[in-house]
Design goal:
The chain is an all-alpha fold and 87 residues long. The chain is 71% helix and 0% strand. InterPro entries: ATPase_P-typ_cation-transptr_C (IPR006068), ATPase_P-typ_TM_dom_sf (IPR023298).
């Protein structure tokens, strides 16, 4: 996850989640492509996909926040374990 790896020494929340314009454009482009592949009938035929249900969408929207929380916790533990070293 590039937003998490963007700032290895400090927390991603201190720098700002939307501070890197290139990463944000990439994420939006990826989401648009995924929606097109799963929702447009012609692309469903080409890629052999099916539309996602609401429960799948809610599940997929929760995953990035869990990963972000785990990575921020890892950075916090690392900073307190090795205060003079850089990550």
């Amino acid at each position: 996850m590039p937003i998490v790896a963007d700032n290895p020494r400090g927390g991603s929340l201190t720098v700002g989640l939307f501070s890197n314009r290139t990463i944000n454009i990439g994420i939006v482009t990826e989401i648009v492509l995924l929606v097109l592949i799963t929702e447009v009938p012609v692309l469903q035929t080409v890629f052999h996909t099916a539309p996602l249900g609401w429960d799948d969408c809610v599940y997929l929207c929760c995953i990035p926040f869990v990963i972000l929380g785990i990575e921020e916790l890892r950075k916090l533990i690392w900073r307190h374990s090795f205060p003079t070293e850089r990550v």
